[in-house]
Amino acid sequence: MTRFVLRRILAAIPIGLIVTLGVFALVFAMPGDPLRELAGDKPIPAAVLAAKRAQFHLDDPFIVQYLLSMKDMFTGHFGTTFAGADIASQLRLRIPVTLKLATLSLALQWIAGLLFGLYAGFRRNGVVDRMLLLSTLVVLAVPGLVLYFAGQFLFGVQLKWLPVSGITEGYPLAYLLPATCIAITGFAGMARLTRTSIVDTANADFVKTARAKGLGEQRILWRHVLPNALLPVVTLMGIDFAGIFAGAVLAESIFNLPGLGQFLFQSIRFHEGGVVVLLSTLAFVMFIAINLVVDIVYGFIDPRVRNV
Amino acid sequence: MSEAQQVFESETQDLEGRTLSNRELLRALLKKPQFVICVLLVVAVFLMAAFPRLFTSVDPRFCELGKSQRGREPGHPFGFDIQGCDYFANVIYGARPSVLVSLVAGFGGFAVAGILGLLAGYFPGAVDTIISRVADVLFALPGLIALIVILNSVPNRSIWIIVGIILVTGWPQGMRVMRSTVFSVRNREYVLAARSIGVPPLRILRKHVFPNAMAPLLAMTTLGIGGLIGLEAVLTFLGVGLQPPSISWGSQFGVAASYRDSPHLFIWPAIFISTTTISFMIIGDSIRDALDPKLIR
Amino acid sequence: MTTGEVLLEVDDLTVEFDTPHGRVRAVDGVSWQVRAGETLAILGESGSGKSVSTQALTGILEMPPGRIVSGTAQYRGQDLIAMTTRERRKIVGDRITMVFQDSLSALNPVQSVGKQIAECYRVHRGLSKGDAMKRAAEMLDQVRIPAAAKRVNDYPHEFSGGMRQRVMLAMALALDPDVLIADEPTTALDVTVQAQILELIADLQAERDMGVVLITHDLGVVADVADNVVVMYAGHVVERAATSAALEHPVHPYTEGLLLSMPSAELKGQELPTIPGTPPSLRAIPSGCAFRTRCPIAVPECALEVPPLLTVAPGRDAACIRRTSISAKEAV
C-alpha cells in the first residue's frame, strides 16, 4: 500500500512539472513582448510595465523565470494586478466564497444523484427510472450556460424565491441558486452512472455466488453489490470534485459571486493576462493534487488497482 | 465535459464488436419517431448555418438604436437586441459557429481519437507509450481551464482556432475508449488469421480492427456533440471564444447576462441552442440503442 | 454402484423464460436424483438447460424473467421449490452448495478470499470474525492451497485460475455440505489443472460421503469421474444411465453421436464423425423429438410428439421411439 501511494505521488510530480512548464512556455515564450500580449490593447504606464517585468522575472532566462515564478506562487507572493490590486488579499477574500459554493453544490448533487441512481437501479424500468432517464438526458443535453441562465431567470427574476445575484444575503441563501444549478448538471451524470453500475453489478456472477451461499438479500446488497457498484461512482465523484472550479467559473460569472471563478472571468474581461495565468496554474496544481488524493483513496477501496 | 463523457463511456462499453451493417442500422433508426424528428431539426439548423437567407431576408447588422431592446412587433418576431438590430436575423445567423463546431469537432474528434486509439491499441510498445503518456498529461488538466488559458493567449481567435484547440486538448477520452476496444479486438481470431496470411498492418487496421472497434467511440462522439456546441457558447460567453463582431449564440448570452430585464435576449438563443444539443443527444442515444447487443432481438 | 441415501431428487422440473419474443422453455420435465457418495454428471451442450435446472432449484435463477412452471426438488424429503426463500436459504449455501465456472467473476473482487469463505461460517454458524477467519484458513489448506494462512488475506485477482477454483471449492465445502453442485468447474482451466481440480473434488467427496452433481459438456470428464450420467438435449433429458453402461452401449442417437465424435486411438488417421447440423435455438425447437432434424435414424413419426423417457433396461432410461429397449437398438 505504501508503495502504491509513493508510486502515485511520483507519477503526479512530472505531470505537474510538464503542465506548469507548458503554461509558462505558452504565455512567456511567445514572440513579441508577453506583457503587451497579456494586457491586450490597454495602455499601461511604463512604471507598471517595469514592475511587472520584475514580478514575472522577464529579464531572466526562461527556465529561471519559471522556477522563480513557481517559488513565488508556492510562497504566496502573488504580486499585483495591472490595475494595482494586491492579488494575495483578493485570493483571501475569494477562496471562501468558492469553497462555500463548491461544498454546497457537491453535497446537493452527490446526495440527489446517489439517491435517485440507487432507487432507479433497483427499481429498473419503474416510473422513477423512466423519469430519471428522460430528465437526465435533457439535463445532459442542455448546455450548462442555458441551464444557469434559465434557473436565474425563473427562480430569481420571475418567482423571486432566491436572490438573483451577489452574496449580500449571506450563506447559504445567496449560494443556494448557483449551487443548485451546478448540482443539477452534476446530478444527471451521477444518477445515470449509479443506475447503470447498480444494474450491471446486480447481474454479476459473484452476486449469484452470494445467493448460492444462502445469504440474505440485505447482506448481499451491503456486502457484495454496493461495494462493487459504487466503485465507478467514486471515480466520478473524484472527477466532480476536481472539476468543481470549472463549474464555479461559469456559475460565479453568471450569478456574480465574488469567488475565484468570477476573478478569472473578470481578469479575462479586463485583459489581466497575468492573473489568468496565475489562477489557471493554481487550478491545475489543485486539480492534479485532488486527483492524486482520489487515486489514493481509490486504491484503498479497490484492491485491484493497488498493484497496477 | 469530461464528466458527461465518463457517463457516456460507461454506457457505451458494451458496444464492442458491433459492426455497422449500415442498411440494417438505418432501418432500425428510421423506425424511431424521435430519431427522425431530431434529424429533421438538425438538418434545419444546418440549413440555417449554410443559407441563413432562406430563413430571413433581414440583415442582422442593420440596426436602429432607437429600437434597442424592444419586444416583438410585426416583421420582427423576436424583437430587437441592445443595438436595435433585428433579433430573429441575429439568432438565425448565430447558428453558423455552433454548426461548424458540431461538424468539425464531431468528425475531427472522432478521427483524431479514433486514429490515435487505433495506433495505441494495435501497436503496444513505443507508439502506445507515447500516445498514452501525452494523454495522461492532458487528462491531468481541467478541460475548461486549459482551454481558457490557451485561448486567452491567442490574440485573433477564429472559429477554426477554437475548434482546433478543442480537438488538441479533447482527444484523450475518446482515444482511451478506442484503445481499450482495439485491445480486446486485436487478438481475435479474424485479426490473427489476417496477420498469419501476411496482410499488411494498415490494411488489417482498416478492414478488420476499425470496423469492429468503432461502435463505442461512435456512440460516445454523437452523444458528446451537444456538449461541444455548449462548450463553444461557454467559451464565447467567458470572453475567450469568438470575438465581436462575430454573431453567435454564445456572444448573445454574453450580452443577455448584462441585460436581465430583457429576457427575450436570452430566451431565443437558449431555445435554439438547446433544441440543437438535445437533438444531437437523442440521435446519439438512438444510435447507441440500435447498436446495443443487449437490446437487439 | 452407489447405494447411499437419496439426498436430492428432482422430479418433472420445467422452467420457462419470458423474452421480448415470447415464452421460451429452457428446461422441460427434467428428473434426476443424486445419492450420498455418488457423482452424477449432467451432460449437454450450452443451451441444453443443464445449468438452468440447477439454478432454478437452488433459487438463484433470476425470476423474472425465469419461471418454474412445474416440478419438485426434494432434499431429504423437503421440497426446495415449494418452500419460502427464508427456509431455502438454510439449506442452499449450507447443505447444498455450488461452484461456478468462471471463478474470476464468481468471486467478489473487492473482498479478500478469506472473508468470503468466512462469510459462510458467520452467516450459517454464527461464528465470531476471528474463528471464522481461522476456519477459512483451514479450508484453504484442505483444498491444498500452499501457504494458506498467508493467502487468506489475498484478493481473488491475486490467484491463478486453478488456485481460484480451489478457493471456490473451499467456499463451497466450508460447511461440509451434503450435496455439491459443480457447474462446469473446470471448463475455463488448462487440462492438467482440470485434472487436479477433479481429483481434488473426488478426494474431498470420498472423505465426506457427499453427493456431487457435475454439470459439464465434456464427455471425457464424465467418463473420468461420474458414476451416473444424465444427458440433456434442448431442455429434455434424453438418456439416463450408469456412466459405464452409457459409454459402452449408448441408447439414444444423440449420446451415440457424442461418443462417436470423441477422438480416440482406434480412429487415428480417419475422419472424425460429427453430429450433422447445430443445436436448435430454444425459440424454435422442432416439434416432437427435438433431435430428429439431426438424427440419422429419424422417421416421420418422430415429429408427432415428444418421446417419453422410457426404461429400456434395468437402471437405464432413454427418450427415443425407435429404441424402446436395448434389443430394439441392436435390431435397427
Mind explaining what this structure looks like?
The complex is a heterotrimer of chains A (308), B (297) and C (332). With 308 residues, chain A is an all-alpha fold. Chain A is built from 14 helices and no strands. The longest helix of chain A is centred in the middle third of the chain and has 36 residues, at 87-122. Chain B contains 13 helices and no strands. Chain B is elongated. Chain C contains twelve helices and twelve strands. In chain C, helix 4 packs across helix 5 (129-142) and helix 5 (129-142) packs across helix 7. The relative contact order of chain C is 0.13. The interface between A and B is large, with 58 and 48 residues.
Q: Could you give the topology of this structure?
A:
The complex is a heterotrimer of chains A (308), B (297) and C (332).
Chain A: H1 2-28, H2 34-39, H3 46-55, H4 62-74, H5 87-122, H6 127-141, H7 144-158, H8 173-202, H9 205-212, H10 217-242, H11 244-255, H12 260-269, H13 273-301, H14 303-306
Helix pairs in contact in A: 1-13, 5-6, 5-8, 5-11, 6-8, 7-8, 7-11, 8-10, 8-11, 9-10, 10-13, 11-12, 12-13
Chain B: H1 2-12, H2 22-30, H3 33-50, H4 87-93, H5 95-122, H6 126-139, H7 143-152, H8 159-185, H9 189-196, H10 201-213, H11 215-238, H12 249-258, H13 264-291
Chain C: E1 6-19, E2 22-35, E3 39-43, H1 50-58, E4 66-75, E5 78-79, H2 85-91, E6 96-99, H3 103-106, H4 113-125, H5 129-142, H6 148-151, H7 161-173, E7 179-183, H8 191-208, E8 211-216, H9 219-225, E9 228-233, E10 236-242, H10 243-248, H11 253-260, E11 310-313, E12 316-318, H12 326-331
Parallel strand pairs in C: 3-8, 3-9, 6-7, 7-8
Antiparallel strand pairs in C: 1-2, 1-4, 4-5, 9-10, 10-12, 11-12
Task: Please provide a brief summary of the model.
Chain A is mainly α. Helix content of chain A is 78%, strand content 0%. The radius of gyration of chain A is 23 Å and the shape is flat.
**Radius of gyration of chain C over all CA atoms, rounded:** 21 Å
Proportion in helices of chain B: 55-70%
How many E strands of chain B? 0
Could you say which overall geometry of chain B the principal axes of the C-alpha atoms support? elongated
Gross morphology of chain C: globular
Give, in order, the helices and strands of chain B. Answer: HHHHHHHHHHHHH
What proportion of the residues of chain C is helical, as a percent range? 25-40%
Strand content range of chain C = 15-25%
